[in-house]
Every structure is written in C-alpha cells, then in structure tokens.
Specification:
156 residues, 4 helices, 73% helix, mainly alpha
Length: 156
Amino acid sequence: MASSTSVDVLPTGFRIFTTLPDVFFILEFVFGGLVWMLVASTRIQPENPLGWVMFVSIFCFIMTTVWFFIFLCGGNQSSMWPSLDVGYHFVAVVFYLSASVVLAYITFILGSASSINNQAFQRIFHLDIAAVVMSHLATLVYFIHTILSAIRWRRS
C-alpha cells in the first residue's frame, strides 16, 4: 500500500550524480556540445537543413543546462516534475532524431556527389562524419534518459 508521506521523487543537489537517469545529463552535455561544435566548424552549404541541426543542438544544450540546474538547486520537487522530465527528454529525442537523420543524409550526399580529393574537403567531410556519429550518440543518450525517466515517473 502506498504511503501518503512526502518523499522526494526526483533527486536534488549532488544526488543527481548518483541516480541512474540523471547521470545521463553529463553525457547529454558532452555529445550535444560536440554536435554543436562539429557542425559549427564545418562549411554550411545547404543552410536550411544544417540550420535545423544547429538549432536542435543549441536548444537541447541550453535546455539541458537549465534542466540540470533546476535539478541541482532542488526546484524539481513538485508532483508535476517527473512527467515534465519525461516530456522534455522525449521532445529532445524527437528533435535529435530528426537532426541526426538530416545530418546523415546531407553528409552522405556531400560524400557521394563530390569526388574532390583536396585536403580542405576531406577535413570538412570527416568533421561531418564525426558530427553524425555524435548526433546519433546524443539521440541514444536522450532516449535512454527518457526511458529511465518514464520508469521513474510510473513508480512515483
């Protein structure tokens, strides 16, 4: 039988570094920041699709930072926060998945359509490949965080 006493559902302070869904904040910072830096360091030729990738990486990086500080400062103790946590990370998964697919497609088209063997093109192409890998890893980390947050939300 469930107890009616108030129990912290979400961790606060430095306990977020010891709970399973919340340790993924660190990986989200790393992979999201790498996507942002790698895409920003390449030449943006198809502006619109790569603009979406930049928007997603910057938006998710800033929102994850805000989310992290809310958890760190303990502002997440209302009963609505577990569902908000699942909702935010689900939106981040959908955004990053769409950005990853767009980035992979643009990189594939760029690599297959061009037979330029100069050093500058190869450098940009390798940065794009690294950005695709980091974007897919960021999608995976956000997905795992979403699943674990949903399990925590169901238990609360």
